[in-house]
Specification:
By secondary structure, the chain is of the alpha+beta class. Helix content is 41%, strand content 22%. It folds into three domains: 146 residues, D-Maltodextrin-Binding Protein, domain 2 (3-Layer(aba) Sandwich); 94 residues, D-Maltodextrin-Binding Protein, domain 2 (3-Layer(aba) Sandwich), CATH 3.40.190.10; 113 residues, Beta-Lactamase (2-Layer Sandwich).
Length: 458
C-alpha cells in the first residue's frame, strides 16, 4: 500500500499518458449515471424541421476522448462521466441516441468532426480557429485554465513570465493560436497529448504547460505543481458540432435551456464535488476567554469528558474518510488503467513488474500473477533477444531519467509488429525515482480499427 501511495500521482498522469497512442483524463470508478426515464420537460418544444431531423437521424455520433471525470470508459468498457450524464439526459428529453466514437487525441477528434466521421464532441473548448468549422451550443458549466510547472520553480501566474521559455501544449490546443499571436516571445512546442506535455515539463525540456483546472488538480505529481489561473481565459463547457447541422444545434440548445438547473448542479456535484479538499473544521473555534473561565469555574468535568470523546470520534471519522477516499481513488485509477485499449505496465528501478493492465496480459498471453515482481529476461513472454534489448533499454532510461517516445518494429512471439512505444520515469513525493511507466500501441491494429470505424462515404 505504501508503494501505491507514493506512485499515486504518477499513475494519475499515466491515465492520460497511456493514451499517447490513443488520447490526452478523485472519485471512485463507476459512479452511477443518470437514469434517463424522466419525461421531457414541457418547455422543450421542437419545430417540425427539428422533429423530422430526429426521425431522419436517430443516432448522433460523438467524437469522444477519455478525459477523467468528464468522459471516460469504466472497467466494463461503458462510457461514463459528467458529460455522458448530460448526453443521457438530453437523449431522454429529445429521443436522440448518442453513440460514442473513441478518439485518441484532440487533433484526431477535430479531424473526425471536420471529415464528417462524427457529429458532435463534448470536450472541445471554443476558439476562433474552431468556430470556422464548428458550431457551439449554449454553455452548461465551465472551468479556468491553469499553469502547470515544475516543482521548485517560481509559481507561474501569467503568460508574461514565459517569455523566452518553452510552453508545451497538445496539438491544436484551444489557447495555442491566441498565445502564438499575442505572446510571440513564448516558444510554443506542440505534442500529441497532455501526458506527453507533462512528461516534458517533468524532465525539464519545457518550462510549463496549460491544463483545465479540474484535470490539473485531479492528477498532481511530485515533480509538478499547479500555478495560477490564466487570466481572462475561461473554458466554458459546450457541445461542439460540425457546421451544416442547424436543426441539431437548435435541438441541443433547446434541451440545454430546458435542463433543470437543480439536476445539472447535482450532476456536476456528483462528479466534481470531491476534487477540492474539504474544509477543515474544529470544535473550539475559538472559544472566548470568558467561556473558558466559566467552564473552568463551573467544573463540569462530565461535560469536558463528553467533549473530549466527541473530538476523538471526529478525528477517527476523519481518518476513516481519508482512507476510504484514498481507496476510492486507487479503485478509480485501477479501473481507468484496465479500461485502456493499449498495453500499459509499471516497473520498479530494478526492472521488476509492479503493475500491468488487462491489455498487457492479453498482448503477451500471460497473467499478472505469473509475471509480478519479475524482469522481462526472467519470463518467457517475449523472444529472448527482444526481452534482453528492452530490459537493457529500461535500465539505461532509468539511469538517464529521460522520457522516451518512439515508433519502432519489435519481434513478438507472434512475429514482427510496428508499434508506437512510450516509457516515462516516475517519482515519489520525495523526488526519488520509483520506476518506469510505459506501454505501446500496435500501429497496424489501430489503423485497421480506425478504418473499420470510419468507412469512406460515397
Amino acid at each position: 500500500m505504501l508503494f501505491y501511495r507514493k506512485m499515486k500521482s504518477a499513475l494519475g498522469g499515466l491515465c492520460l499518458a497511456a493514451l499517447l497512442a490513443g488520447a490526452p483524463e478523485g472519485k471512485a470508478a463507476q459512479l452511477a449515471t443518470h437514469e434517463g426515464g424522466a419525461p421531457p420537460p414541457a418547455a422543450l418544444e421542437l419545430d417540425a424541421a427539428e422533429r423530422q431531423w430526429i426521425r431522419d437521424h436517430p443516432e448522433v455520433a460523438v467524437a469522444s476522448v477519455q478525459y477523467p471525470l468528464y468522459l471516460f470508459q469504466d472497467e466494463h468498457g461503458h462510457w461514463s462521466g459528467l458529460n455522458n450524464d448530460v448526453l443521457q439526459r438530453i437523449g431522454a428529453m429529445t429521443g436522440l441516441a448518442f453513440v460514442h466514437r473513441e478518439s485518441f487525441s484532440t487533433e484526431q477528434m477535430l479531424e473526425r468532426l471536420e471529415s464528417g466521421a462524427a457529429d458532435i464532441s463534448t470536450t472541445l473548448a471554443m476558439n476562433d480557429e474552431r468556430k470556422a468549422f464548428l458550431d457551439f451550443s449554449h454553455a452548461f458549466g465551465g472551468a479556468g485554465w491553469v499553469f502547470v510547472g515544475r516543482a521548485g520553480a517560481p509559481l507561474l501566474t501569467s503568460l508574461e513570465q514565459l517569455a523566452g521559455r518553452v510552453l508545451v501544449l497538445p496539438a491544436r490546443h484551444a489557447l495555442e493560436e491566441a498565445i502564438r499571436r499575442e505572446y510571440p516571445a513564448i516558444r510554443v512546442r506542440s505534442v500529441k497529448t497532455y501526458a506527453e506535455a507533462r512528461a516534458l515539463v517533468e524532465s525539464g525540456e519545457a518550462h510549463a504547460t496549460i491544463e483545465n483546472e479540474i484535470g490539473a488538480q485531479l492528477y498532481p505529481s511530485g515533480l509538478l505543481k499547479v500555478g495560477g489561473v490564466v487570466e481572462g481565459r475561461w473554458e466554458a463547457d459546450h457541445l461542439a458540432l460540425r457546421k451544416g447541422q442547424p436543426e441539431l444545434l437548435g435541438i441541443l440548445n433547446k434541451a440545454l435551456e430546458a435542463f433543470p438547473a437543480e439536476e445539472l448542479r447535482a450532476i456536476r456535484l456528483r462528479w466534481l464535488g470531491g476534487i477540492a479538499p474539504p474544509p477543515k473544521s474544529g470544535f473550539c473555534y475559538p472559544l472566548s476567554w470568558w467561556g473558558c473561565w466559566l467552564m473552568f469555574f463551573v467544573g463540569v468535568f462530565g461535560v469536558l469528558s463528553m467533549l473530549w470523546n466527541r473530538r476523538l470520534s471526529a478525528v477517527i471519522r476523519q481518518r476513516l474518510d481519508v482512507e476510504r477516499h484514498l481507496g476510492d481513488q486507487l479503485a478509480f485509477q485501477r479501473a481507468l488503467i484496465d479500461a485502456m485499449p493499449d498495453p500499459v505496465f509499471v516497473r520498479d528501478p530494478e526492472g521488476r513488474l509492479v503493475m500491468c493492465n488487462k491489455s498487457y496480459e492479453e498482448s503477451l498471453s500471460t497473467r499478472f500473477d505469473r509475471v509480478q515482481g519479475r524482469r522481462l529476461i526472467d519470463v518467457d513472454t517475449l523472444p529472448e533477444s527482444t526481452a534482453r534489448m528492452l530490459h537493457d533499454e529500461f535500465m539505461a532510461q532509468m539511469g538517464s531519467r529521460k522520457t522516451r517516445f518512439s515508433k519502432r518494429r519489435l519481434l513478438f512471439k507472434g512475429g514482427l509488429k510496428d508499434i508506437y512505444q512510450w516509457t516515462v520515469p516516475f517519482y515519489g513525493v520525495d523526488g526519488q525515482l520509483r520506476g518506469l511507466v510505459g506501454g505501446w500501441t500496435d500501429i497496424n491494429q489501430r489503423k485497421a480499427e480506425g478504418g473499420a470505424e470510419c468507412p469512406r462515404k460515397n
